Amino acid sequence: MNVFSRAAVSRLRRTLRTREALRFNWTVGGVVVPAARVGVSFATPIVALVALDRIDLVPFAAFGAFTSLYCRVDTWSRRARLLSLIALGLVASVAAATMIAAATDDPLAGVLVLTAIAALGKLASDLLDFGPPGGLMFVFAAGAAAYASHGWSTVGLHIGVTAASAVLSVALSLLGNLLHPTGPHRVAAARALAAVADHLETPGHATRHRAHLAVHRAMATLRGKPHRGTFDRIRAHLAQAETLLHHPTDAAAELRALSRKIHRGRVPAPRNRPLEPQFQLKPSTRTRGSRFQLKLRTTQRLRRIAPFLPGAGRMVIACLLAGLITGALGLGHEYWAIVSASAVLQSANATSTWHRTVQRTTGTIAGALLALVMFGFHPRPMAILVLVVVCQLVAELVVQANYALGLMFVTPLALGLSSLGNPAAHNALVAERIGTTVLGALIAAAVSLLLINRQTTRRLEAAIAECRRAQESLREAVSHQETTVDGVRSRLARSLFALRDAHAVAEGELWHRNVRTQEVLDTEHTAYELLAATAPTREHFGLP
Fold first, then answer.
1. Please, what's the b/e burial string for 342-352 (b: 16 or more CB within 10 A of its CB; e: otherwise)?
2. pLDDT tens-digit profile of 493-541?
3. Fewest beta carbons within 10 Å, which of 119, 157, 183, 273?
């Protein structure tokens, strides 16, 4: 087979398009409050260290504060679980890097450790679904910590400051549970209603999928919550939104108005109380698993890891090459190249990796120019610390719109932290930042284009099979008037989202010639028809 055939060249051209990379995506809710929380998480330990006249420890406080970048709008229970693991991972990454830096000056040892941290961070992020910024901050913290460390005498102090800052970030992230316990649920519901409104205004395959997914995610946040008060009103609004997905009407403006109200904190009672659905989910009783079931679950976990191993493998190769090539060229700050490679590989396939490469390159160059302006005023360390906090706050406000916008402010932040240890080398730092970042990103992009991820095909085949099995289960449940039909509908919805995700990942790989697009579309169409046929009609909700 000639890989340079016309079809291959056409796929390469589609993969290397930049239009999608530079598009802005504005989200509903979950921006200002998380950004403020991040700002407080960074500012509090920095102010404390400045008051103690320990500016040298500020970078390590920042590494612990990276914890606050995760779980922006997750539910409080999920936030508590994930942030504890992320904080532990950041502390462990800083500990490993500082101890290696204290033990040896060999740059190869540092490259190997950072590569291992990057790969493990990527794997953990994919498996546990950390969300943005994925496994990036582990290698960022480790690389910067290794560069800022100065021997065994300070290792314990550096680790302790990082841990204390991480614990503070976890506490601040969970503090909102006391102030607005329904906040994450309201944000998810507001986004779901806005997504349904988008679909009603501009019906299409993509908008329908986004709307169904948003409603499903919002409903998932309500699991285990009491059937009363605000939670019950949110359920009713989401149920009516799902009804509109299956039985569309001209209600987009009403949904947008309701979305804004819910986002602002007021959840009005639905105009008409939903009646009981046609079928009820029969409560399931849990029994202790047998030894055979335990082995089965272990096998299932191993199968779940398999689709993410190629991504971790790409991470290993790209980070290793980025570190070694940067060192061989004498650019300095090898960890910046490794961080850059890791950043663009926090993606699902070759196409999204290229998009992140474009975003990282443009964002870093723009941020470097901003840093030159900042350093042109010869700021004192205190002024740099203020700029670090401000840049982090602004980056959080804009990063969800486009990754390049976030990097435009993250780059001065990184350069500002680095300049605290070497305040006289501003211009050299900026030049090295641009060179190492662009080099690391291009190496990662090349690795993702050249290394074929065959797991995406297997994952797609499994997703198609599971979606068809879920369809058949729903048909049988309805035909036999079973009481578990709601649970089977949920299974079909989950398999439908998994199918769309698997197809998107496979389609973004360069060398896959057959991603069974028509078969996927047909399967999805049948699934949506079944969901519509088994959904309550507007009459069931007493709506006109």
1. bbbbbbbbbbb
2. 889 888 888 888 888 887 765 668 888 888 988 888 888 887 754 444 4
3. 273
Three-class SS state of 291: helix
Closest CA to 208 of 258, 255, 244, 245: 245
CB atoms within 10 A of CB 522: 12
Closest by alpha carbon to 420, among 373, 391, 383? 383
Instruction: Determine the residue type at 183.
Output: G
> Of 246, 143, 104, 225, which Cα lies nearest the Cα of 532?
246
- Helices of type H across 221-333: 229-246, 252-263, 291-305, 309-329
CA–CA separation, 330 and 310 (whole Å):
30
Q: Which residue has the higher pLDDT, 332 or 497?
A: 497
Q: With contact defined as beta carbons under 8 Å apart, do 506 and 456 qualify?
A: yes
Report d(CA 343, CA 410) in Å as an integer. Answer: 12
The mean pLDDT of 277-301, rounded to a whole number, is: 42
Cβ neighbours of 476 (radius 10 Å): 12
Question: How many whole angstroms separate alpha carbon 452 and alpha carbon 459?
Answer: 14
Task: Read off the DSSP letter of residue 104.
Answer: -
Count Cα neighbours of 110 within 13 Å in the Cβ-side half-sphere. Answer: 32
| Nearest-angstrom CA–CA distance, 532 and 541 | 15
Task: Report the chain's terminal Cα–Cα distance, integer Å.
Answer: 60
- Chain centroid to CA 91: 20
Q: Is 136 in a helix, a strand, or coil? A: helix
What is the model's pTM? Answer: 0.85
Q: Would you list the domain boundaries of the chain?
A: 29-179+309-450, 182-264, 454-536
pLDDT of residue 205: 82
Q: What is the mean pLDDT of the chain?
A: 83
- What's the chain's Rg over C-alpha atoms? 25
Tell me: pLDDT of 351 over 50. Answer: yes
Amino acid present at 97: A
Residue 134: Cβ-neighbour burial (10 angstroms; 0-12, 13-18, 19+): buried
Residue 541, pLDDT score: 41
CB 322 within 8 A of CB 344: no
DSSP 176: H
Residue 539: both structure tokens together = 């009459």
Q: Are 163 and 91 in contact (CB under 8 A)?
A: yes
Q: Read out DSSP for 198-227?
A: HHHHS--HHHHHHHHHHHHHHHHTTTT--S
- pLDDT for res 515: 67
> What does the DSSP 8-state code read for residue 453?
-
Q: Closest Cα to residue 407, out of 423, 419, 396?
A: 396
- Give residue 163's pLDDT band: very low, low, confident or very high (50, 70, 90): very high
How is residue 130 written in tokens? 């950390």
What phi and psi, each to the nearest 5 degrees, are found at residue 280? -115, 145
Closest to 447 (Cα-Cα) out of 329, 315, 292, 359: 315
